[in-house]
């Protein structure tokens, strides 16, 4: 059993990550910024801490991460919020993880953020351009952190039922969609496979079982 801190635990993907980790038998610390969401996380079996990426004191983040085996960054800027939170939140939690002695750090970005994908069509809005700018800066900081990092860059997230199968690679792939539940399962799979350390994965819906896809891409 591992102790894992999930940052942004009440997001639609974060909740599924918490659920998947608890089901695996891990001790999960869920960070949330809205106290009204605490009951939902406690019901899932997670220890829950109220922390805000932009406002909570740094030492409180260090305290929450102390004793953890890994941190999962599943937070993201919401509608109407600045995309800068994706960068500044990552920087703050990287520093806190390092100070707390947490070596393992898994982050969820977006497809193509590390492969130079050009935004086109409905993706080429000013908001998305800024979002990708912030995610790329966050990824750069993660790679330079000295932690045992893994970055997952999923395609368009959907609330469809998970299939348990994906297309996952370290190379650029065609943009596509993927159920959030399959992203959560991929997080669990990379945490279980030390060969994923230092790698960035693109993932969309596919035909290969998740653990198998992770193992193949991590060779």
Describe what you observe in this structure.
With 219 residues, the protein is of the alpha/beta class. It has helices spanning 12-24, 38-44, 58-65, 84-100, 126-143, 180-192, 210-217, and strands at 3-7, 27-32, 47-50, 70-73, 104-108, 148-154, 156-158, 165-169, 177-179, 199-205, 208-209. The protein has one domain: Rossmann fold (3-Layer(aba) Sandwich). The strands form two sheets. The chain has a nine-stranded mixed β-sheet, sandwiched between helices. A two-stranded parallel sheet has the order 7-9. α4 (84-100) packs parallel to α5.
Q: What features would you highlight for this structure?
A:
219 residues, 11 strands, Rossmann fold, alpha/beta
Number of β-strand runs: 11
Radius of gyration: 16 Å
What helical percentage do the residues reach?
A: 25-40%
- Tell me the number of helical segments per DSSP (H or I, 4 or more residues long): 7
Largest sheet: 9 strands, mixed
CATH superfamily: NAD(P)-binding Rossmann-like Domain
**Main sheet: strand order:** 3-2-1-4-5-6-10-8-11
- Cα shape: globular
The second-level CATH architecture is 3-Layer(aba) Sandwich
Mean pLDDT: 94
Helix-and-strand structural type: alpha/beta
Number of separate domains: 1
The CATH class is: Alpha Beta
Q: Give the DSSP E fraction (strand runs of 2 or more residues).
A: 15-25%
């Amino acid at each position: 059993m591992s102790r894992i801190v999930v940052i942004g635990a009440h997001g639609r993907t974060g909740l599924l990550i918490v659920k998947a980790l608890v089901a695996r038998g891990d001790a999960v610390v869920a960070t949330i910024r809205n106290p009204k969401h605490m009951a939902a996380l406690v019901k899932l079996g997670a220890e829950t801490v109220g922390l805000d990426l932009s406002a909570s004191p740094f030492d409180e983040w260090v305290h929450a991460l102390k004793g953890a085996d890994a941190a999962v960054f599943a937070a993201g800027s919401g509608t109407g919020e600045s995309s800068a939170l994706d960068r500044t939140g990552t920087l703050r939690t990287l520093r806190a993880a390092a100070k707390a002695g947490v070596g393992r750090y898994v982050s969820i970005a977006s497809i193509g953020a590390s492969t130079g994908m050009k935004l086109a069509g409905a993706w080429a809005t000013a908001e998305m351009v800024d979002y990708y700018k912030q995610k790329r800066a966050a990824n750069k900081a993660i790679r330079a952190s000295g932690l045992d990092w893994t970055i997952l860059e999923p395609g368009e997230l959907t609330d469809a039922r998970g299939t348990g199968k994906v297309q996952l690679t370290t190379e650029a792939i065609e943009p596509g969609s993927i159920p959030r539940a399959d992203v959560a399962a991929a997080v669990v799979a990379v945490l279980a496979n030390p060969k994923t350390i230092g790698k960035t994965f693109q993932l969309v819906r596919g035909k290969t079982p998740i653990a198998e896809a992770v193992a193949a891409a991590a060779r």
